[in-house]
Amino acid sequence: MVVSVGFDIDIYPGDAKAATYIPYLDFEKEIGMLMELANHAIEDYNNRETTVYKYKVLCIEKVNYLRAKCREFFITVEAENLTLRRLAIEAFQIHAYKGPHGENIVRLCRKRVLI
Questions:
Q1: CATH at residue 45
Q2: Would you call 97 helix, strand, or coil by DSSP?
Q3: What pTM did the predictor assign?
Q4: What pLDDT is attached to residue 49?
């Protein structure tokens, strides 16, 4: 779990007080806010990375979160490679949250690391 930084966890122990990372099984309740965070992260990734490829978020696959002052989300998304345009879909992992003033804060955005 430490290597995956909160992304690849099982649903057990769930929402237990001992759990550091908690699976957000009904994340659809906040899909608008989560998509906003994901789109912001991918846009930052597109502008920051030196690769010629650009990506667009298609959907959210999975969400985990960490209880902190602000709930920190670990979002796994599918993104389309806009440069190739041949159904080139890749998974990305995003660690982001809404700041105390409603701003988007992205701590990590990377292509999914397979462990």
A1: 3.10.450.10
A2: strand
A3: 0.85
A4: 73
Quick one: DSSP state of residue 113? P
Q: Is 59:78 a contact under the CB 8 Å cutoff?
A: yes
Per-residue CA distances from 94 to 14, 27, 110 (Å): 20, 15, 7
- Average pLDDT per block of 10 residues along the chain, 115 residues long: 60 58 90 98 91 93 87 95 85 94 94 75
**Predicted pLDDT of residue 69:** 78
What domain range is 87 assigned to?
21-111
Instruction: Name the one residue in this structure whose structure tokens are 């237990």.
Output: 16
For residue 14, the Cα-to-chain-centroid distance in whole angstroms is 19
70 alpha carbon, distance to own chain's centre:
15
User: How far is 112 from 115, CA to CA, in rounded Å?
Assistant: 9
Determine, yes or no, domain membership for 90: yes
Strand order in the sheet with 72-81: 21-23, 55-66, 72-81, 89-98, 104-111
Structurally, how many domains does the chain consist of?
1
Inside any domain, residue 76: yes
User: Is 13 part of a structural domain of the chain?
Assistant: no
